[in-house]
Design a protein that fits this description.
It is a single chain. The chain is mainly beta and 884 residues long. The chain is elongated and about 105 Å long. It has a 22-stranded antiparallel β-barrel. Strands 3-6-7-4-5 form a five-stranded mixed sheet. The protein has 13 helices and 49 strands.
Length: 884
């Protein structure tokens, strides 16, 4: 039965099961160790495996879909929006931060993404790799810096690719949910004299969804901005001596909403015409992704072989931008509208507010000059709900390219000693083009000339001819928009190089060792658009270019000692030096596995792990956050730039890790593991406070760390990185697999996995267990995640039903409960052997989220927790795979 469970993890059908029984014993390196060994090795490390079967049962079309199969994964950013990380995702074990989980491909570093997260951590974008290349994903749920170095503080995820695949394979899939997607993938593998070559390619495309496409968002969220389109006006008075202009936009008693505000789909509150921006941006962006991964092996001689892995991906993410903000006008962020403007029908009748005199009913008086408009100050967006949002939105295009080459030599030195040499180069870059970044000086000139109509008549009466000149029509022309609408372009890149040498072998029948050295270099650059850098354009973003490099040297050793047939031990020690940009650290680890009897084993480990400050935490980082504004209660949330200053004096954050587990394997097909784990974290690298806390502490006053534009809206929040605080995290993992021998028709597999947080205490933020952790840098940590499923395989039939449960937890932004959620998935496959040209044809139909559950709601944008829930609802998919 153990063979059946292993086969299920590898995606083998019963037809192929018994062909897998003959195996060739070869030298292998297991996840959690640097020692290359022959034959069976009782690994003491707590490694969870997600095989092709689990990946298929999850309905995965990209690697982030695999996350829900890993209950120990918490805090991954699954649905980034309104920033450069849209379309990107990463592993995040235990909610300790996306940069605290090291991602490997075939045991070697997978490279880092070009854009850090909002805490300055760099991470691996796992969506750069095609899903069809994966044999299995091994998750080391224990700190592993003593083996792998920095970034392995929370653990390691090792993506193992399909090895020595031979033949040709094509797969096509179509999927329908709130959006639709299509995927085409292929695989080719061939053996030749002394070598083997495989290549996997994938093309994926999806359309997007605006926020208004989801009833659960529209019915529960407020999308209201004080800057509307049309907008709000007040009388503008020019000082005859110095030419300065004053206005009354700051007071509800002196400002007025546009006369056509309601008809132009605005709302009126406190003498403002407000903007409903629900369809200003997409919740789910359009994507077009191409991924390729290839692997080449060549035996140079009987004792030496060469290998090379080459991968490349290009992902184009297309978001939408509707009514873009305009915060940099000449009147303290607002625009000047002269009385001579052909559609300025506001007059000064001596009161505090200007008065609107309709151009239709008063056409004659406007035409003969009896009525004369007053100069105005205007707070508005050039485009809004009707003419700028939804189908009229422009496109934000972000293009990511990721390339990686990992090559090396494996040398058999005889007598069970091996030398592994590797060089890995990985580069990630991005370009983001954002339209509707208005050149305010040009716009002001165009308004002065009367060629752009900022008033509601442009929306509700575009054919209206101005009675003031008898010629100009109210509607705006796209050619004029192009004169002052610019695109800002941000670019950035990260290049990582790793050179490594590992010597490993057996000192005796019971003792094996490894010694090694590693050199890593990281080069980073980030260049925001020049207009943003000098605070020009429609939005005054606080951004500045940054670049730098970081070097690390590591020396490490490891010893595996089989004390007896029943006791396996492991000892590891690693020294890393980051010179003046992160300091140095020495980390040990001790692990054991003891077989109590044929069925029961005990395993445990103790060690320390570390995470060096990232290059962005040293130099400073710029990100985004959604915050509520105490000065605008009831207005919903706002997107603000977060500028976090860096420091050269940061120390690595560190952790002491413990793991103690029981493993039970019975002859009746039951495999069970229970692990208790602890992380004791120190010297955490944290921002000074969360953006929301900074804004709340500022309250109704003015503060140097909360920057507002001239309209009073929050523009940026300032903070800095520092070593401060500790955290204690502990919990349990449970894995059960049961493959009974019922002598029934077909084979059955039952599986269950559980992760339960028992404690998550922070010295800075208190108890953050079972919390969304909006107000701190930890990931969302629902304290209970449970997956279960049943699979039936019979001949050419394959059926799976899975259930996934996430417990309720607290939204610390509102102190309300995020409801628990249970979703169900189903999948059926049938293999038609020899249907086309002698090859097998597999047809699969599946449903993700059978009952079409909405994500559990939160009270602020985006309306759900992007680290926990999927907004797409029920997903129906059909795929056809053809092998030759």
């Amino acid at each position: 039965m153990g063979l059946l469970i292993a086969a299920g993890s590898m995606g083998l059908t019963p037809t192929a099961l018994y062909a897998a029984e003959e195996t060739v014993v070869e030298e292998v390196v297991i996840t959690g160790s640097n020692i290359r060994r022959k034959g069976d090795f009782d690994n003491p490390a707590p490694v969870q495996t997600v095989g092709q079967m689990e990946i298929g049962n999850a309905g995965a079309v990209q690697i982030q879909d695999v996350f829900k199969s890993i209950t120990s994964n918490s805090g991954s950013q699954l649905a980034n929006r309104q920033n450069e990380r849209q379309g990107v995702s990463q592993f995040s074990l235990r909610g300790l931060g996306v940069g605290s989980t090291l991602t490997l491909v075939n045991g070697r570093r997978a490279g880092l993404f070009a854009v850090p997260d909002d805490t300055g951590q760099l991470f691996t974008d796992v969506n750069q790799y095609p899903v069809n290349m994966i044999e299995r994903v091994e998750v080391l749920t224990d700190g592993a810096s003593a083996t792998y170095g920095s970034e392995a503080l929370a653990g390691v995820v090792n993506i193992i690719t399909r090895d020595k695949f031979e033949g040709l394979e094509f797969t096509a899939e179509a999927r329908d949910a709130s959006n639709s997607s299509q995927q085409l993938s292929s695989a080719f593998g061939a053996a030749f004299d002394k070598g083997h070559f495989t290549i996997f390619a994938n093309y994926y495309t999806q359309d997007g969804n605006f926020r208004g496409d989801f009833d659960w968002i529209e019915d529960n969220q407020t999308f209201s901005s004080s800057t509307g389109s049309p907008g709000t006006y007040s009388t503008a008075t020019t000082d005859p001596v110095d030419g300065s202009i004053t206005h009354g936009l700051g007071s509800s008693s002196t400002r007025v909403p546009d006369a056509d505000c309601l008809e132009a789909e605005g709302t009126i509150s406190s003498s403002r015409c407000r903007y409903n921006f629900i369809d200003q941006r997409r919740l789910i962006a359009e994507e077009e992704r191409f991924q390729v991964f290839s692997k080449f092996n060549f035996d140079i001689s009987e004792s030496a072989s060469f290998y090379s892995e080459i991968s490349h991906s290009r992902n184009q993410v297309t978001d939408a931008l509707g009514g873009a903000v305009l915060r940099t006008g000449p009147l303290g962020g607002n625009m000047f509208i002269p009385g001579s403007h052909p559609f300025n029908f506001w007059v000064d009748q001596g009161g505090d507010q200007p008065v609107y005199l309709d151009p239709t009913t008063n056409a004659a008086d406007w035409a003969n000059g009896t009525l004369v408009a007053t100069d105005l100050a205007g707070q508005f967006r050039p485009l809004g709900t009707v003419l700028g949002d939804g189908p009229n939105a422009d496109e934000i295009k972000t293009v990511f390219t990721n390339s990686r080459i990992s090559s090396g030599f494996d040398i058999d030195l005889k007598n069970d000693w091996f030398l592994a040499l590797n060089y890995t180069w990985a580069n990630s870059d991005y370009t983001r083009r954002e339209p509707r970044n208005y050149a305010v000086d040009l716009l002001q000139e165009i308004i002065n000339d009367g060629r752009w109509n900022p008033f509601g008549t442009a929306v509700v009466s575009p054919d209206l001819v101005s009675p003031k000149d008898g010629a100009t029509t109210a509607g705006n022309e796209s050619l004029v928009l192009q004169e002052f609408s610019r695109s800002k372009t941000n670019t950035g890149s990260v290049m990582q190089q790793v050179a490594e040498a590992i010597l490993s072998g057996e000192v005796s029948e019971s003792i094996a060792v490894a010694v090694g050295a590693q050199y890593r270099r990281l080069d980073f650059e980030d260049f925001p658009d020049g207009l943003s850098g000098v605070l020009e354009g429609g939005r005054a973003d606080e951004t500045s270019p940054s670049e730098g490099s970081q070097d690390a040297i590591a020396l490490f050793t490891e010893l595996a000692w089989s004390v007896s047939d029943d006791l396996e031990t492991q000892f590891a020690l690693r020294y890393e030096d980051y010179d003046d940009k992160g300091g140095s650290t020495l980390d040990p680890k001790v692990a054991f596995k003891y077989n109590v009897n044929d069925d029961l084993s005990v395993r445990g480990s103790w060690g320390t792990s570390f995470q060096a400050p990232s290059i962005k935490q040293v130099s400073g980082s710029t990100g985004n956050a959604t915050v509520t504004d105490p000065q605008q209660p009831g207005a919903g949330t706002f997107n603000a730039t977060v500028v976090t200053g860096g420091s050269d004096d940061l120390d690595p954050q560190s952790s002491t890790n413990y793991n103690l587990g029981l493993l039970y394997t019975a002859d009746n097909g039951l495999d069970l593991s229970v692990d208790y784990w602890v992380y004791e974290l120190e010297d955490l690298i944290l921002p000074g406070a969360s953006p929301q806390v900074i804004v709340d502490n500022c309250g109704a006053g003015t503060c140097p760390d909360v920057l507002r534009d001239a309209t009073g809206q929050i523009n940026a929040v300032l903070t800095s990185f520092d070593n401060r605080g500790t955290a204690d995290v502990r919990g349990i993992d449970v894995k059960i697999a049961y493959a009974p021998d019922w002598n029934a028709e077909g084979d059955w597999i039952f599986d269950l996995s559980l992760t339960k947080f028992l404690e998550y205490d922070s010295s800075e933020f208190g108890d953050v267990k079972n919390s969304r952790n909006f107000g701190n840098p930890f990931g969302s940590t629902p304290d209970t995640k449970l997956n279960g499923g049943v699979t039936w395989m019979n001949g050419n039939h394959y059926v799976n039903l899975s259930a996934r449960f996430v417990g309720d937890y607290t939204d610390d932004q509102t102190d309300e409960t995020v409801d628990s959620q249970t979703t169900y998935d189903a999948r059926y496959s049938y293999v038609f052997p020899g249907l086309i040209a002698g090859g097998d044809t597999t047809v699969t139909a599946g449903v993700v989220n059978i009952t079409d559950e909405d994500p559990s709601l939160i009270d602020n944008r985006p309306g759900f927790d992007t680290e926990v829930h999927d907004p797409r609802g029920r997903q129906l998919y059909v795929s056809v795979k053809q092998t030759f």
